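Appendix B. Extra example for self-study. Work through it before the problem class; the solution is given directly after the inputs so you can check yourself.
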Amino acid sequence: MVSTEFSLEAVRAATPGVDNVIHVNNAGAALPPSVVTDTVVDYLRREEAIGGYETADERHDQLEAVYDSLGALVGAPREHMAVIENATRAWDMAIYGYPFERGDRVVTCRAEYSSNVLAFLQLERRFGIEMVLIDDDEHGQIDLAHLDTELTRGAAMVAMTHIPTSGGLINPAEEVGALCGEHGVFFVLDACQSAGQVPLDVGTIGCDVLSGTGRKYLRGPRGTGFLYVSERALDVLEPPFIDLHAADWTRVDDYEWRPDARRFENWETYYAGKAGLGAAVDYALGVGIETTAVRIADLAARLRNGLGSLDRVAVHDKGARRGGIVTFTVDGVDATSVHAQLLARRINTSTSGPDRARLDLEPRGLPTVIRASTHYYNSEDEIDAVIAAVDEVR
Ligand SMILES: Cc1ncc(COP(=O)(O)O)c(C=O)c1O
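Solution. Structure tokens for the complete assembly:
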């Protein structure tokens, strides 16, 4: 869909939740536009009226179009897209499907999402892989020179989180992809916070696998996510689970994987959510991610500047390039209390603890931080109201 000129009025009119709350918890789950909710509810009503299998048949074209939408979102053919219930399970499909051998080195970074690191720790215990941590550079992003050195030593995979859950950093995915290309290393990108927040093109990034979620910057329904699987990844990975959707039972003692990325899906799935995910992606592409990415970052910069100017408030975001996630602490008021006091003023934020970011917040000696994450539908007045509220709380 071709993007038209951005209208704050139009996107707010299409977002009923903005009448109730100032929502700066978009890195948690964004407010959906009405078209997403309507699509899900309409789908469920049809299931109620004529039956689930019958609705799936009747809505075949609508459900198939979701793969076109996801492909357009990341610049990939539809055959390379799978719909999976969340970003974690999508990412797991690649990691647990990779044919690791004892001693294989998996390279990651400080921004890596907690569940991903837990998966590597489990694979270390089960299969003897080695997790190699790349340090931050002076900007707080993945250190590309250190990465190059480690890739020269040899690695099976680079797994990197594009935008962490606990800070404003945007990691340089394209530069990492270029190094993986030079060294011939398999590259898995966790784009959970970046899908819908910044433009993504798997060809330009050069990743083999990319995982994302529906409910965050894409403004889709909860319980939805997706996976991009490149041609090479289709050859290299074997789905860790099999069912009658992923494979054909060709003879009594044989089966064949389906040829496309949907071999990573389940047979039974959240159909209404899938339809809603398609509506969310179409809406995001319609508003124009190139445009909204700039607005998200500008609103976050306004928030960082405002918060940074308050005494006893410290902003903690790293990165040469920063997006919509703003993290901060207030001296003498713990993050849970700040979060609750903002909530009482109808301002939605969340918190991020060092126990969920042991490679990032823990070494920086940070306590639990408050996370305020902007979206393009936030107004400048809302951002100023958040700053004023934090000023009161402190
Ligand atoms: C960077 C990152 N990766 C992965 C996830 C997991 O996503 P999901 O909850 O959809 O599995 C999150 C969730 O916050 C995240 O921020």
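Self-check: Residues 86-88, 113, 161, 164-165, 190, 192-193, 213, 225 surround pyridoxal-5'-phosphate (CB under 6 Å). If your reasoning did not lead you there, revisit section 3.
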